[in-house]
Amino acid sequence: MAIGEAEATAIIERHPQEIAQILEQFKGLMKIGEDGFLIVQAGDYYVQFMVLKGARNLIVDAVSNNYLPAKKQLGAEAGAALVGFGFESPKIDADNFTMPYVLTGGDDNFSYLAVLALAVLYDVYHVSEDAPLSFELDSA
C-alpha cells in the first residue's frame, strides 16, 4: 500500500514549507549522485535516502528499533504501517526498514518521496508536526 492521493494532498497542504525544504535537499542529493545520502530527521526518528549506482536507484531507510532508545521503540502497529508503505522489515539486527525506489523521471518522484518522509515521521513515528526537521546531506 503506497500513500494514497488524498493522504498525500493532505500532507502537502498541511506542510508546504517542510515539503519545500525536503525538495531542496533532494536537489543537493542528486548533485552528489552515486553514494550520496540524505537524512530527514525529527528527534530520534529519521528517514534516509541513499543513491545507488547509476543515480536512478535509491534505497529508502526508515529507522528501526535497532537504532532507537528503549523509550522510543516502535510497536507492532508502527512496523506494520511501514510495511504497508512498502518497506521491508529488518532482516538482521543491524538493519532498518528498507525500500528500493527507482526514479522514473520528473519531479513527481521527489514530491512523493518528500510526502513519504513526512508520512513516516508524523503518521508512523508520531513525531509532533511542530517538531523541527533537520537534514544531513553527504556522500558515503
What does this 3D model show about the protein?
- The chain has helices at residues 5-14, 16-32, 76-85, 108-124, and strands spanning 36-42, 45-51, 57-62, 97-102, 134-139.
- The protein is built from four helices and five strands.
- 39% of the residues lie in helices and 23% in strands.
- With 140 residues, the chain is α+β, with helices and mostly antiparallel strands.
- A five-stranded antiparallel beta sheet has the order 4-3-2-1-5, with helices on one face.
- It is globular.
Residue runs with pLDDT of under 50 for 5 or more positions: none
* Count of helix runs: 4
- Helix-strand sequence: HHEEEHEHE
Radius of gyration: 14 Å
Average the pLDDT over all residues and give the rounded result: 92
Q: Quote the beta fraction.
A: 15-25%
What percent of residues adopt helix (DSSP H or I)? 25-40%
Query: What class, by secondary structure content?
Result: alpha+beta
Secondary structure topology:
Layout: H1 5-14, H2 16-32, E1 36-42, E2 45-51, E3 57-62, H3 76-85, E4 97-102, H4 108-124, E5 134-139
Antiparallel strand pairs: 1-2, 1-5, 2-3, 3-4
Helix pairs in contact: 2-4
Keywords:
single chain; 140 residues; alpha+beta; 5 strands
Kindly summarize this structure in a few lines.
The protein is α+β, with helices and mostly antiparallel strands. It is built from 4 helices and 5 strands, in the order ααβββαβαβ. The longest helix has 17 residues, at 16-32.
